[in-house]
Specification:
single chain; 519 residues; alpha+beta; 3 domains; 5-stranded mixed sheet; 65% helix
């Protein structure tokens, strides 16, 4: 968007500069030759500037309004799509209603864009060529004697429609690349950095010739040939050296066969444009370009790489390790001498048994099992599913013990029959259940929580639904969004890149999370 805005501004300034230095008679000749009235602003400046602005504003319309609404629609109602048909009307319910509403909005926007931009483009084209269509009639589209349309009004609409179609293809490719970058969580920041670096280069690289040629500061033919054959190979060689060849080298020498072969191959490929552009001496130009890439660009980039080596290596491979270290640090900070607490629980358990307080003893035992899990299993990268399930069951049992006195609270869990043979990252599911009890239980209103866990050969399927209640004004948690759910999503991206699907939705009455993991 920055590139398009800069180029639009450059062309606009260059055009006004050209108008200022050109005699109006050059623009007026077609009009005077056909005895048509001429006004420099009405027939040249305003129509041409308007045509360019129409295309630019159409670009903004698509990028700021249509594409965001298409890719990120408002909350979609969950549940089965239902369509009720009667003799008098067709009624859409559930997800069908939301989908039709969202996509219909996008279609309406495209139709409005084509109609408004196409009409403005037609008007601009008419005034630019008014000498071809001006016959003294109040309606400029018609001849004076022959009732036949002489101005193709579909031309402007077809131009805008074709532009929208081409841009839709580009946007699809762009969003696919972005999705790919987002899924490569192990090197996400590294790939995003490379993408941003290339984009910034393209903005500058494409703007320079537009600026110079627009103001006649360079000869169009010879300048473009030299510019595109010299600058681009140097930049590409520098980027691939810095972020691929040198990090791949590790402890090897630059003259190692595998590294040397890659350097020679890339230098040859980046020098190939000389074979297609230079008619004479192309062999010398090819060799000269390769020599510059190998003996000038490569040493310079090696010095730059040595200065940024730690940062580049960090982005390439250590993101997951750093994230895990931060998680472990947060976990350690959250522990308040767990061994001491565990011993106290054992003492309370024995005291409860001596006093015949079986329910209290049962609750203490479950809490002790949870403490044992956090002390031992939570330090592992992956654990058996039955251990994660036991932890969930103990937590839910303790919550039921706390809420069983209220008949307005319904807690349903279907995880007893979940026979899973997979392994899973510890403490991955419990934050979702904790959020449900934290936000879904009210001792004053009817509340419910439904928890379901199911496994098959390929997936672990987990779902949590809970009621929602308006927070009180004096609730200290009212302004806090919580970090449990966010942490779960971050861990999923790091541990299961491209192997999970998470659906999070809700309204004022119910909130639910659906999670599918391919372990």
């Amino acid at each position: 968007m920055i590139l398009v805005s800069i180029i639009t501004a450059t062309l606009l300034i260059a055009y006004l500069f050209q108008i200022h230095n050109t005699s109006p008679a050059q623009y007026a000749s077609p009009f005077t030759n056909n005895n048509a009235p001429f006004n420099l602003y009405k027939n040249v400046i305003i129509p041409q500037v308007s045509a360019g602005l129409v295309l630019y504003l159409s670009y903004l319309w698509v990028n700021l309004l249509i594409i965001p609404r298409f890719l990120f629609p408002k909350k979609v109602e969950t549940g089965t799509a239902r369509v009720k048909v009667s003799l008098s009307k067709i009624k859409l319910e559930g997800i069908a209603k939301k989908l039709i509403k969202n996509y219909l909005w996008v279609i309406i926007q495209i139709v409005l864009l084509v109609f408004i931009a196409g009409t403005l483009l037609n008007i601009s084209i008419y005034y630019l060529h008014q000498w071809e269509y001006d016959y003294g009639e109040p309606v400029f589209f018609w001849k004076k004697k022959i009732a036949q349309l002489t101005f193709d009004i579909w031309w402007g609409y077809s131009i805008i429609l074709a532009w929208v179609a081409v841009y839709a293809v580009y946007a699809a490719i762009r969003e696919t690349v972005i999705t790919y970058l987002e899924r490569q969580e192990g090197k996400r920041n590294f790939r995003v950095m490379i993408c941003n670096l290339l984009t910034s280069f393209l903005v500058i690289y494409l703007e320079i010739p537009v600026l110079l040629i627009s103001f006649h500061a360079a000869n169009e033919g010879s300048f473009l040939i030299g510019y595109y054959t010299i600058v681009l190979p140097f930049f590409l060689m520098a980027i691939t050296n810095l972020y691929w060849i040198f990090p791949l080298k590790k402890d090897k020498s630059l003259f190692h066969p595998s590294i040397l072969f890659r350097l020679l191959l890339l230098a040859f490929l980046y020098s190939l444009p000389y074979l297609f552009i230079l008619h004479e001496g192309y062999a010398f130009g090819l060799v000269f370009c390769m020599a510059v890439l190998l003996f000038i660009i490569t040493p310079i980039t090696w010095v730059l790489y040595e200065k940024r080596k730690e940062e580049i290596q960090l982005l390439r491979g250590a993101e997951k390790t750093i994230a895990k270290s931060k998680t472990d640090l947060q976990f350690l900070r959250s522990q308040i001498n767990p061994h001491f607490l565990f011993n106290i629980l054992n003492t309370l358990y024995g005291t409860a048994l001596q006093e015949n307080a079986k329910r209290s003893a049962e609750g203490i035992q479950k809490l002790g099992d949870m403490m044992r899990f956090m002390l031992h299993e939570n330090n592992l990268d992956f654990i058996e599913m039955d251990k994660e399930i036991n932890y969930l069951k103990n937590y839910i049992s303790l919550q039921k013990l706390r809420t069983e006195s209220s008949s307005q609270i319904i807690i349903e869990d279907n995880i007893d029959n979940a026979h899973c043979n997979h392994k899973i990252a510890p403490m991955l599911l419990i934050p979702l259940v904790e959020n449900a009890f934290k936000h879904g239980i009210s001792l004053k209103e009817k509340s419910w929580i439904t928890i379901a866990l199911e496994c098959n050969e390929k997936n672990i399927l987990f779902e949590v639904r809970n009621s929602m209640h308006a927070k009180q004004e004096n609730d200290p948690e009212k302004e806090r969004s919580g970090i449990g759910l966010k942490n779960v999503l971050e861990r999923l991206k790091l541990l299961y890149p491209g192997k999970f699907q998470a659906s999070i939705n809700g309204d004022e009455k119910e909130f639910f999370v659906q999670l599918a993991i391919q372990p």
